[in-house]
Amino acid sequence: MTDLWQNAMDHAVALAKKAGSLVRDAVQNDMKVMLKSSSVDLVTKTDQMVEQLIIDSVKEKFPTHSFIGEESVAAGEPCVLTDNPTWIVDPVDGTTNFVHGYPFVAVSIGFAVNRKLEFGVVYSCIEDKMYTARKGKGAFCNGLLLNVSDQKEISQSIIATEFGSNRDTEVVDKIFSSMRKILCLPIHGIRGVGTAATNMCLVASGCVEAYYEIGIHCWDIAAGAIIVTEAGGVLMDVDGGPLDLMSRRVVAANNKIIAESIVKEIDAFTPLRDDAPPETKD
Amino acid sequence: MTDLWQNAMDHAVALAKKAGSLVRDAVQNDMKVMLKSSSVDLVTKTDQMVEQLIIDSVKEKFPTHSFIGEESVAAGEPCVLTDNPTWIVDPVDGTTNFVHGYPFVAVSIGFAVNRKLEFGVVYSCIEDKMYTARKGKGAFCNGLLLNVSDQKEISQSIIATEFGSNRDTEVVDKIFSSMRKILCLPIHGIRGVGTAATNMCLVASGCVEAYYEIGIHCWDIAAGAIIVTEAGGVLMDVDGTSLYIPDST
Fold first, then answer.
1. Annotated binding residue at A282?
2. Along the 282 residues of chain A, how does pLDDT read in single tens digits?
3. Nearest-angstrom CA–CA distance, B203 and B205
4. pLDDT-based confidence at B249, cuts 50/70/90?
C-alpha cells in the first residue's frame, strides 16, 4: 500500500538538508541581525532566505498545498490551519544561537492533513542530526530508532525548558516561578539548548524526560510533536488538556506520569494565539 | 627551548582521550547511580573508575606530582593546592548528564605549578571535542585556534550558568534572583550544557560571552580557566576580585 505522503516527506528531508547546509555556512560569517517584537527577538536575512527557498520549492512541487512559515507570518501572511495539506515551517529555529554561533540551530518542517500531523522533520544542522517521524512508523535520528526515556519518577528526571524572549515582568515572574517549583520537586536538573524543535527531539531521544514552554509558536513545535509521539512520548497543554498547536503552549514528555507532574507546577499564562485575527496582533 | 611541562600535557591529552572513550562506552549501558551530598548530587562507578585510572597513570609517570581529584576528595583525601606540580582532575564532569545520556560529558584535567595553571585539557567526549591550552601558547579545540567573542555590549550577550545541585531555599533564592537580574538587563539569553568545564570551553570558543556559577569545585574549573584565558578571556570571582585557584576549603 503506497504511502500518500511519502513523496512529501522525502522532499521535506531533502529540503531540510539543503536549508541546513546554507544555515551552517552562514554561521561562519558575520551577519546583520534585525529585531522583531523586541530587542531579544532576533531575525536575520538567512531566516528569510531559507524560508523563501522552502516556500518556492514546496509551491513548485505541491502547488495545492498550504504553507505556514515563521517569516511569512511575520510579513503578514495568515496563520490558520485548515484541513488542506499544510507545511508548517521554521526555517531557522534558534536564531539567537545562530547569531552567536552556539551550536544548536534547526530547520523544522511539520506537515499536517485534516489538522493532524502526518510527518515531521527537524534537521539540527550544526550537529548534522536529521530527526524524522512518519505517523505510525516510528521516529529516527540519522537512521537510528528513537525511544523516549522509561523514567517514571519525576525526582530522577531532567526537564528541558527555556526562558524565552518575553521580558515583561508578569511573564518573567511566571516563567521563573514555574522553573523554581519544578527544580525543587526536586528533579535532577533543568536544561535547554535554545531551540524548541531540538528540545523536543531530546525528549524523543530519551536524553531528557520532558520539555515544556509557554511562548513558542506552532512552527517551533509541529515537527517535534510527531517526533515525540512516534518515539513513544505524550503531548499536552500546560493545563493538562490536549495539545493545541496554535495556543503557544506545549508540554512534551516521555509519559503521562511525568507530564502531569510538571503540569501541576506550571504557573500558566495565555499568550496571544498564533491563529488570532490579524487585527489583534501588533 | 624545551617546554618543561610538555610531556605532562601530552600525557594529559592521551589520558583524557582514553578516559573519554571509557565514559562514552559507559553512556550506552545501564548504570548504578549513587548519591553524594543529596538526592541530586550523583556519582557512578564510572566516575570512580576513571579517576583511579588517571591517578594510577599519573603516579606511575610522574611519581613526585600531587593530585587533587573529585572522587579522591570525596573519599577523604585532602584538597590543598601547594607549590608542587599538581594535577586537578574531574574524571566525569556532568555526571547527571552522563546518567541521562544528555550529550555533554567532559573529562577535565588541569595542571598547576607554584599555584599557577600551566595547562588545561577538557575532553567533551560524546561530541569528541578535545579542548586544550598551554600557558602562553593559545587555546585549541581539535586543533583549531579558539578566540573568545569580541562582544562588548551586555545586551547582545548570551551568558551561561547552571542551577547547580544545592536545593536549600536560601541558595535557590540567590541563584534565581541572580539569573533573573541578568536575563532582564536584558541579555539575549541564558544557556547551560550541564558541565562547568564545557561551559567554560564555550566561552573560549566565542559561542557565549561569559559563564558564571557559585557552587562548582576547583576540579570543575581548573582546566577551563586556562583554556578561557589562553583564548583571550578573563576570570574573576563573583565579587569582582581575582579568581583564586583553588584554596583549602
1. no
2. 678 899 999 999 999 999 999 999 898 776 777 777 777 777 788 888 899 999 999 999 999 999 999 988 988 899 999 999 999 999 999 999 999 999 999 999 999 999 999 999 999 999 999 999 999 999 999 999 999 999 999 999 999 999 999 999 999 999 999 999 999 999 999 999 999 999 999 999 999 999 999 999 999 999 999 999 999 999 999 999 999 999 999 999 999 999 999 999 999 999 999 999 877 765
3. 5
4. very low
Is B131 in contact with B121 (CB distance < 8 Å)? yes
The residue of chain A nearest to residue B193, with distances taken between CA atoms, is A191
Cα–Cα distance list, B99 to A11, A74, A181, B19, B96 (Å): 37, 41, 23, 16, 5
* CA closest to A174 among chain B residues: B180
Contact residues, A window 222-281, toward B, CB-based 8 Å cutoff: none
> Does the beta-carbon distance from B186 to A39 stay under 8 Å?
yes
Q: What percent of chain B has pLDDT over 90?
A: 81
Interchain proximity A189–B194, CB inside 8 Å: yes
Is A167's CB within 8 Å of B189's CB? no
Residues of B in contact with A188 (CB under 8 A): 40, 42, 96, 99-100
Q: Is B204 on the interface with A (CB under 8 A)?
A: no
For residue A42 the three cell numbers come to 532576533
Q: Cα(first)–Cα(last) distance of chain A, in Å? A: 47
Tell if the CB–CB gap between A206 and B42 is shorter than 8 Å: no
What pLDDT digit, counting tens, does each position of B181-196 carry? 999 999 999 999 999 9
Nearest-CA neighbor of A94 among A80, A104, A109? A104
Shortest distance between the Cα of B38 and any Cα of chain A, in A, equals 10
Helix (H) or strand (E) holding A212: strand A210-214
Burial class (CB in 10 A: 0-12, 13-18, 19+), A16: buried
- 3-state helix vs strand vs coil in chain A, percent to 5: 35, 25, 40
Structural domains of chain A, with CATH:
2-143 (3.30.540.10), 154-263 (3.40.190.80)
Instruction: Tell how strand A158-160 and strand A249-253 pair up.
Output: unpaired
Closest CA to B192 of A46, A1, A179, A35: A179
A85 touches chain B (CB under 8 A): no
State whether B207 and A99 contact (CB < 8 Å). no
Query: What is the pTM (predicted TM-score) of this model?
Result: 0.95
For residues A216 and A222, give the distance between their C-alpha atoms in angstroms, rounded to a whole number: 11
CA distance B67 to chain A (A): 29
- The conformation of residue A271, written as its DSSP 8-state character, comes to P
ipTM entry: 0.94
